[in-house]
Write a structure and sequence with these properties.
Rossmann fold; alpha/beta
Length: 130
């Protein structure tokens, strides 16, 4: 499976590492080259300095061949826009979008995006501990 991940924060780096270890072809992109230091030395995928909203970066990431696109940057707007591009322009079969704002996450989920809200997930986990 070919996976493109936009955002090499802790979550992006962890996901890229997991998928790479499972044998998937992984490309992780970030606008900050320093972020790739979060990837372990064993990472065999591609680390690409680029923005998931720019055509040149998406071509370098081989988005047209991707089976999965995941947007996990710190910005909800960037994540949503990149996922829309992946889904509607590049026809990526599976697109997952991290959205911090629970209300926006629900709205975009209702519009057909696969969304994850860490805010809702953490609140639920904490609630289960009380």
């Amino acid at each position: 499976m070919k996976v493109v991940i936009m955002g090499c924060s802790r979550v992006g780096a962890q996901l890229a590492t997991m998928l790479d270890a499972e044998g998937h072809k992984v490309t992780v992109m970030d606008v900050d080259p320093f972020s790739f230091k979060k990837l372990p030395p064993t990472f065999k995928g591609t680390a690409l300095v680029g923005n998931g909203l720019e055509e040149e970066s998406l071509k370098k990431a081989e988005m047209g061949e991707a089976d999965v696109f995941v947007a996990v940057t710190q910005g909800d707007n960037r994540n949503v826009m990149a996922c829309q591009i992946a889904k509607h322009i590049y026809k990526v079969p599976k697109v997952v979008c991290r959205i911090y704002d629970p209300m926006r996450e629900e709205m975009y989920r209702n519009l057909g995006l696969n969304t994850v809200s860490p805010t809702k997930l953490v609140a639920k986990l904490i609630r289960e501990q009380i």
